[in-house]
Amino acid sequence: MDDELESGNLRPYVDRPRTFPNMRNKAYNPLIFRVLMGINVRVLLTLLLLGFGVIFYIGARTSPIIVFVFSVCIISFLLSIYLTKWVLSKDEGPPEMVQISDAIRDGAEGFFRTQYGTISKMALLLALVILSIYLFRSPTPQQESSGLGRSTSAYITVAAFLLGALCSGIAGYVGMWVSVRANVRVSSAARRSAREALQIAVRAGGFSALVVVGMAVIGIAILYSTFYVWLRVDSPGSMKVIDLPLLLVGYGFGASFVALFAQLGGGIFTKAADVGADLVGKVEQGIPEDDPRNPAVIADLVGDNVGDCAARGADLFESIAAEIISAMILGGTMAKQCKIEDPSGFILFPLVVHSFDLVISSVGILSIRGTRNSGSKSPIEDPMAILQKGYNLTIVLSVLTFGLSTRWLLYTERAPSAWFNFALCGLVGIITAYVFVCITKYYTDYKHEPVRTLALASSTGHGTNIIAGVSLGLESTALPVLVISLSIISAFWLGQTSGLLDEAGNPTGGLFGTAVATMGMLSTAAYILTMDMFGPIADNAGGIVEMSQQPESVREITDVLDAVGNTTKATTKGFAIGSAALASFLLFSAYMDEVAAFAQEPFKQVDIAIPEVFVGGLLGSMLIFLFSAWACSAVGRTAQEVVNEDYKEKPDYGRCVAIVASASLREMIKPGALAIVSPIVVGLSFRILGYYTGHPLLGAKVVAAMLMFATVSGILMALFLNTAGGAWDNAKKYIETGALGGKGSECHKAAVTGDTVGDPFKDTAGPSLHVLIKMLATITLVMAPIFL
């Protein structure tokens, strides 16, 4: 065998039964699921009915709008159960496929348990820090007038933080749970029909998307209505409804905290395993990446689930939660300034938009059917075209439902035409999302010129491949930035000209117009997440087909699905960056309002000509580059440990998974701690300096500059990393279709090098960055009192 490896002449792999080891001794389910499964069915149904009754009672006491939101979310959960049963009813294929799938599931659930155990401990520690800060801070005048004491405010914020962290963790688990069960069913379906395999992958992703978005919406709705009833909001001498959204900030911070560490840990795991598999297989031994002889192959497939599914579920959950809360805060502030009699429509508008998102995305998911390609030898339809049709349908429905929502909730006698302006703001956001998807697809899909040019550069060597990939990534930042800039200015102008005026007669709708545009951009979030989840499920399916040595015709189907999955993953990352840019702008505005409330003086501008403030901006930009460097180097160090696990005829899959898991958990701490500690240390340091120099707001101003510069730098860096990595990956896939010499050629080897370089870019540093910039915004919002 060794002689054959040295000569490069490998024997055809004999089709014989193989076994894949279990990574754990018994089935694992989170504690909450084990408790629920141990309860009698009738008792459980009774408890569920009582729970629904309490929820609807609290909702009815709050607003009919909340009742509508609860109803839609519960219906979407029922639909997700139907999708789950539909997917799980499909066959798992021959025994060798099932064995491989079981090994992947064991590894993914084992890593998830360990990772989220670590994250939960850090979350509890941070909750104690938040509690200490809030117990010793001074309350705002609004809180004092409403009787909301210091301790009550502290416990509310900590409870919201822990609930947000818990829900974000559940969202991540849901994403992984479905992917490790759907992958083998997609593999089995690919033996019969490409269209059936596509439908299973989409519906599995749809289940996760509906649960994640529904949980984000219903979680905030329950928290809002509970606080509304408990604090007797709008009663004489109590808190006003326009101030209530500020109590929800902790929920967004908890979601951001878990999403960051989930993305870091999962991203390091998946890309270290992927890089290791590429180097051990394609480069060192000349065997396919998913060949059973490759010791890193199971770890690579496990990584798809913990990095691309679990982490992305927590990521999108956090994106929606942050956008809803910031828009609710700005809606309440604008309603207060304009003296609108019933501000509830402006405050609850984001919840209604995302409720309609669940409805229209469900239609888009169900529109993809498996009625064609009845045989595996039939011509393969373009999966991207099928997914695009579903997205187009969702976009059309989104425009209609968004217009309906604005007329229903944003109509006011003070400015009868304002709702139409805000509907146009939403249209700006929807168009922005669509354009972002098209731009990212253009730069990452091998049907278009940029990726084909990158593949051609591989024909002249490894160096030219890297140069072409870096230049493509740098160029790809231009169009998205222009689109974001145009959308912010357009939405702000439409909001300003809506006719809403404050007491002094000044237009006040600009910021809320930007918030509405952000809602428009995320109004199809569930379908976008469905396309994102489709990618890793298809990737896993291809790995299972390769390892179980299915016929070439089956592998051709999964290869096409895998290539499309790479494009959809890159597309949704571009979408996430665009929404992160708009959401961070809103959170920045909310932070300035929060500082003004605590300082009891206006805080509307940040002057970067002040040296200390400019230094804060530099520190924010530096944070982005340092964080990215640490995330990429973490992948490199972990991958080295994988490569050092020697090639064997009978590779030890379990040991390779253990190596990657322990290293990724260790490596995620440093960049994560940097993100949390940096704004706190900078804010406190300059607060002390401001105290001695007679500038009481210096700490808050420096943190504002840090947040502003970090957001701008982070958006550009994330765009570069995500697009370059996706383009390198699909350039390799393009060559593997037979172009430019095909697999095994010198051109292919150069493309593998580019793909290896791009792996930590697109799946570790890039996705973590857009979570980072939103977490910086939420942490500064929560910690604002300590900067004054």
From TrEMBL:
Gene Ontology CC annotations of this record: endomembrane system; membrane
Residue stretches spanning the membrane: 31-59, 65-83, 119-136, 156-180, 200-224, 244-262, 346-370, 390-410, 422-443, 477-495, 507-529, 574-592, 613-636, 672-690, 702-721
EC nos: 7.1.3.1
Topology class, membrane: Multi-pass membrane protein
Superkingdom of the organism of origin: Eukaryota
Cross-referenced Pfam families: H_PPase (PF03030)
Top EC group: translocase
Main location: membrane
Signal peptide positions (record): none
NCBIfam families reported for this sequence: PRK00733.2-1, PRK00733.3-5, V_PPase
Name the UniProt record assigns to this protein: H(+)-exporting diphosphatase
Originating organism: Carya illinoinensis
